[in-house]
UniProtKB/TrEMBL annotation:
<dbReference type="Pfam" id="PF00390">
    <property type="entry name" value="malic"/>
</dbReference>
<feature type="binding site">
    <location>
        <position position="306"/>
    </location>
    <ligand>
        <name>a divalent metal cation</name>
    </ligand>
</feature>
<dbReference type="InterPro" id="IPR012301">
    <property type="entry name" value="Malic_N_dom"/>
</dbReference>
<keyword id="KW-0479">Metal-binding</keyword>
<keyword id="KW-0560">Oxidoreductase</keyword>
<dbReference type="GO" id="GO:0051287">
    <property type="term" value="F:NAD binding"/>
</dbReference>
<feature type="binding site">
    <location>
        <position position="491"/>
    </location>
    <ligand>
        <name>(S)-malate</name>
    </ligand>
</feature>
<feature type="domain" description="Malic enzyme N-terminal">
    <location>
        <begin position="116"/>
        <end position="297"/>
    </location>
</feature>
<feature type="active site" description="Proton donor">
    <location>
        <position position="139"/>
    </location>
</feature>
<feature type="binding site">
    <location>
        <position position="282"/>
    </location>
    <ligand>
        <name>a divalent metal cation</name>
    </ligand>
</feature>
<feature type="binding site">
    <location>
        <position position="447"/>
    </location>
    <ligand>
        <name>(S)-malate</name>
    </ligand>
</feature>
<dbReference type="GO" id="GO:0006108">
    <property type="term" value="P:malate metabolic process"/>
</dbReference>
<dbReference type="Pfam" id="PF03949">
    <property type="entry name" value="Malic_M"/>
</dbReference>
<dbReference type="InterPro" id="IPR012302">
    <property type="entry name" value="Malic_NAD-bd"/>
</dbReference>
<feature type="active site" description="Proton acceptor">
    <location>
        <position position="210"/>
    </location>
</feature>
<feature type="domain" description="Malic enzyme NAD-binding">
    <location>
        <begin position="307"/>
        <end position="560"/>
    </location>
</feature>
<feature type="binding site">
    <location>
        <position position="283"/>
    </location>
    <ligand>
        <name>a divalent metal cation</name>
    </ligand>
</feature>
Length: 591
């Protein structure tokens, strides 16, 4: 210390300043921060005094102008805020007014992120009360643009970055996160961000967005949510050449290097947070996604949202649509564009449900389902060259090159797009679907909006109002020949928040396919007759908290039935229990 003071003294005398009263304003430089040369180490002290300033800067507890007079007195806030006291409702109204004034969705996104950093409860109050308006802002499609620009949007840590540089000390990195009671982790490696491809480290926007939905839609406490991005490099040339890129500037690690980091991560999570933290894999490329799920599903509580969550939501939409289409699941023929995580995941769950309903072997049920990938229809003659997850779908059929030819050859009743490739459901494809179906079910699931296989407007006008349509990203209602058509949103956001709540509240130790079927059934049951009449196959997102409680209850019930639940005794009324577990963003009163 003495030598530091001497050095300081020397530095000060060189500058001809009294070290005791130095730095414009006469504040003593106790910690040597101002006089230290650039290469001297300093300690980042933060001084704690009896002032409410830090309370105002703490997003978890800050209430801004809603602090009451009594709270302002008790917590040293007097003078730090203007005199007015606003209710949370008025704060909400004011913020919604200001968010609505932004023209660009990305500006609204940034305003929401700033709010979350400033006042967490108000952020969630806005999101819950205005879910249909704000979901497209914090989630798809805007979150896609946010990821593309994440480098310049990054302000403060919203989650953990675990890069190859941390190999060997991942546990220490996890310990840097300020919360200990973690219940849900959403993790990505950024290689398949929506339908936008490899965005490397900038994929962080996805776990952040997904977890904000875990809280807003599923009621998981924000402090129990941990977004993580694993950075193993990127193969995106644009990012590699961008001087402002925030991630590792190297090509993606693969093979042993990749799996060792992932394994260290999976082990460290268990060590740090215990067995019962739900790890949701999100937006990994399919060559890793299937393998990771298969490897860890028997040892960890894992769930792949793109494979399993999507499957559950789409099966639910198809089952709902049967009310309009008629027939049973097994009476329909399914054609997919896209045979990756989403495509084959959905296909497998539909086949499983069909098999259970009809008591028919799974292999037989798979024969009602066809998939087209970038090389054409998946058929037997391609078997040897197919990735393992496509092989169960290699049916006896002559090779078919294009989607249109496949539609004409197979005459499916249901067409599902999960290709990540926009504009692939052409006018000819939709017209063909409508020529042999009274009511074709068309789902354009790819995100964000730019990657949707077709728009709602195209689906309704090209089918002359016959199509039942749902899309991954939202579309506005469409007026066609004097009738208003309301498109549904077939997005896993309906499922994962309630699913996660069910897993957490029952203390489930593993995810079982029957729990996905239970979630799917719970969602389908929430569509009312009035909604069916409007052509909807999903209930509106405005009811999502109630829907999530129903999903959670069914998922938990299944976990108890399968002997996978560890929270005992089982609550008698699981819906009520789910509701009682849900986080509410209403302000708390401070003593
Ligand atoms: N609505 C929702 O809730 C969800 C939507 N999605 C969306 O689905 C899309 C795909 O995701 P995912 O399955 O994980 O991605 P994958 O990369 O695993 O799969 C994409 C599939 O699409 C195929 N494909 C790509 N281009 C074409 C083309 N021009 N014609 C025919 N097939 C094509 C690929 O073929 P090949 O195998 O030959 O390369 C591959 O089989 C993304 O846009 C994603 O946003 C995903 C999850 C949930
Ligand atoms: C919705 C989603 O998970 C996706 O598009 O990847
Ligand atoms: Mg995803």
């Amino acid at each position: 210390m003495e030598s530091t003071m001497n050095e300081l003294g020397n530095a000060a005398s060189v500058l001809d300043i009294d070290p005791k009263t130095a730095v414009g304003g006469g504040v003593e430089d106790v910690y040597g921060e101002d006089f230290a040369t650039e290469d001297q180490l300093i300690t980042p002290w933060t001084v704690s005094v009896a002032s409410g300033y830090s309370l105002l800067r703490d997003p978890r507890h800050n209430k801004g102008l809603a602090f009451t007079e009594k709270e302002r007195d008790a917590h040293y806030l007097s003078g730090l805020l203007p005199p007015v006291v606003l209710s949370q409702q008025l704060q909400e109204k004011k913020l919604m007014n200001s968010i609505r004034q932004y023209q660009l969705p990305i500006q609204k996104y940034m305003a929401m992120m700033e709010l979350e950093e400033r006042n967490e409860r108000l952020f969630y109050k806005l999101l819950i009360d205005n879910v249909e308006e704000l979901l497209p802002v914090v989630y798809t499609p805007t979150v896609g643009e946010a990821c593309q620009k994440y480098g310049s949007i990054f302000r403060r840590p919203q989650g953990l970055y675990i890069s190859l540089k941390e190999k060997g000390r991942v546990l220490d990195v996890l310990k840097n996160w300020p919360e200990r009671s973690i219940q849900v982790i959403v993790v990505t490696d950024g290689e398949r961000i929506l339908g936008l491809g490899d965005l490397g480290c900038q994929g962080m926007g996805i776990p952040v967005g997904k977890l904000s939905l875990y809280t807003a839609l599923g009621g998981i406490r924000p402090s129990a949510c941990l977004p993580i991005t694993i950075d193993v490099g990127t193969n995106n040339e644009k990012l590699l050449n961008d001087e402002f890129y925030i991630g590792l500037k190297q090509r993606r690690a693969t093979g042993q290097e990749y799996s060792e980091l992932l394994h260290e991560f999976m082990s460290a999570v268990k060590q740090c947070y215990g067995e019962k933290v739900l790890i949701q894999f999100e937006d990994f490329a399919n060559h890793n996604a299937f393998e990771l799920l298969a490897k860890y599903r028997t040892s960890h509580l894992v769930f792949n949202d793109d494979i399993q969550g999507t499957a559950s939501v789409v099966l639910s939409g198809v089952v709902s649509a049967l009310k309009v289409l008629g027939g049973s699941l097994a009476d329909h023929k399914f054609l997919f564009l896209g045979a990756g995580e989403a495509g084959t995941g959905i296909a497998e769950l539909i086949a499983l449900e069909m098999s259970k309903r009809t008591n028919t072997p799974l292999e037989e049920c798979r024969k009602r389902i066809y998939l087209v990938d970038s090389k054409g229809l998946i058929v037997k003659s391609r078997f040897e060259s197919l990735q393992h997850f496509k092989q169960p779908w290699a049916h006896d059929h002559e090779p078919v090159k294009t989607l249109l030819e496949a539609v004409n050859a197979l005459k499916p009743t249901v067409l599902i797009g999960a290709s990540g490739m926009g504009k692939t459901f052409t006018k000819e494809v939709v017209e063909a679907m409508s020529s042999f179906n009274e009511r074709p079910l068309i789902m354009a699931l790819s995100n964000p909006t730019s990657q949707a296989e077709c728009t709602a407007e195209e689906a309704y006008s090209w089918s002359k109002g016959k199509a039942i349509f749902a899309s991954g990203s939202p579309f506005d209602p469409v007026e066609y020949e004097g009738k208003v058509f309301v498109p549904g949103q077939g997005n896993n956001a309906y499922i994962f928040p309630g699913f996660g709540l069910g897993v957490v509240m029952s203390g489930a130790i593993r995810v079982h396919d029957d729990m996905l079927l239970a979630a799917s059934e719970a969602l389908a049951e929430q569509v009312t007759d009035a909604e069916y009449e409007k052509g909807l196959i999903y209930p509106p997102f405005s009811k999502i908290r109630k829907i999530s409680a129903e999903i959670a209850a069914k998922v938990a019930a299944k976990a108890y039935e399968l002997g996978l639940a560890s929270r005992l005794p089982r609550p008698a009324n699981l819906v009520k229990y789910a509701e009682s577990c849900m986080y509410s963003p209403v302000y708390r009163n401070y003593r």
